[in-house]
Amino acid sequence: MPQVEARRHVLGAQVDFSSIGGGMEQVDVLVVGGGPGGLACASHLAQRGVRVILAERKPAIGPKVCAGGITWHGLIKLVPENLIERAFPEQLICSDRQRLVIAEKNPIIATVSRDKLGQWMAEQAQNAGVRIRTDTRLVGWSGHEAVLETKGRGQSSLKFRYLVGADGSNSRVRQMLSVPRTLVGLGLNAMIPGSKPAMEWHLRPGLFGSGYAWIFPHKEFCSVGAYADHRSLAAAALKRQFLTWCATQHLELDPAIIRAGLVNYDYRGVRFDDAFLVGDAAGLASGLTGEGIYPALVSGQAVAKMILDPLYRAPELARLIRRHAQHCRVLRLAGRFPRLSGLLMETLLVLLRLGVIDFHQLEMAD
User: Fold this and answer.
1) What does the alpha-carbon distance between residue 307 and residue 160 come to, in Å, rounded to a whole number?
2) Is 293 exposed, middle or buried (0-12, 13-18, 19+ CB in 10 A)?
């Protein structure tokens, strides 16, 4: 009983443990999804004495289709140095007519392994007291009772007070909350052996519309990929265009190693009664660039603070939502005038060259 009283104090007056009884397993917060957003949320809560179970449908924490780029204003300073694979104080941006090098004193973007980042965050979460269940999916829930299914062990029921959906762009939690999702980007990524000296962004509207292709060097591999809004390019068309671009860059790429991932940027809120959405599940990734790690971490921690304190106003989340809206406005403009995409791209580079626009305005971090 003293433990229950302590948790009531930690979580605030809204928590009613009288409704949680019987022999069924009980938890304060159930987090669905073991990406950066779910792990950040779970860790923040557990560090403050909250009982948390995190369910991840994959057999291991970490793997995801991702270029692995993190920014100086976003995460570089928050990640252990041993996780940084390469750091780049210069960025090469190419369009049909221009080549622009942006240079700063500090690294603008660094690359990390999503596998290693996930494993490090999972270790931090477990050290804080989070119970992580891999190979476990959410079957459904009613009221404050969830049904989980673990591979090889079957189904089990769990009582919770709050539910956090951090399960990515195809979020089952979002689907079960009947929150629509119509604004989606598509990213293609391949990890090829070897490395390159520069981090490159290629704006080719004839191939990718308002999207782009990239070369992000890691320690022993390079992430090469392309991103576009699904309304302008279907998956098959994007793959063809990507392979065409690879040929122009003299990149030998086996099409079989290309992996695809959706980017949900259809933001419609984070709180739905006692359920929350964070990161890609909430639609907080950038529709313009596809950046998702930083929004996931910020929203995951903000939701944890909102659970702990129902009166918390989450200013960091408000700033993130404003930047997200800015990216959406640019994307809408490009989509409204697709024939002017080339002119918009060239104008963007000129404004970057003149310093009228700061490169960091293309990031999700402030």
Assistant:
1) 13
2) buried
Alpha-carbon span 357 to 342, nearest angstrom: 18
- Cα dist from 336 to 6, 75, 280, 332, whole Å: 54, 33, 24, 6
Q: Which of 26, 56, 24 is nearest to 39 (CA)?
A: 56
CB 61 within 8 A of CB 43: no
- Give the torsion through C-alpha atoms of 75, 349, 228, 321, to 10 deg: 50
User: Comparing C-alpha atoms, which of 346, 341, 334, 344 is closest to residue 98?
Assistant: 346
Q: What angle do CA 76, 133, 143 make, to 5 degrees?
A: 105
pTM of the model: 0.90
Return the DSSP state at 327.
H
Q: Write a three-state SS string for 260-281.
A: EEEEECCCCCCEECCEEECHHH
Task: Specify whether the backbone of 283 is left (phi greater than 0), alpha (psi in -120 to 50) or beta.
Answer: left
Cβ neighbour number for residue 203 with a 10 Å cutoff? 23
Q: Which of 257, 35, 221 lies closest to 112 in space, CA to CA?
A: 221
Residue 196 CA to residue 212 CA, distance in Å, equals 19
Which amino acid, 30? L
Q: Which two tokens stand for residue 165?
A: 């959906």
For residue 175, give the amino acid letter: Q
C-beta separation of 342 from 210 below 8 A: no
pLDDT at residue 43 greater than cutoff 70: yes
CA dist., res. 137 & res. 40, Å (int): 19
Of the spans 41-50, 67-76, 201-210, 340-349, which averages the highest pLDDT? 41-50
**CA 112 – CA 98 distance, rounded (Å):** 29
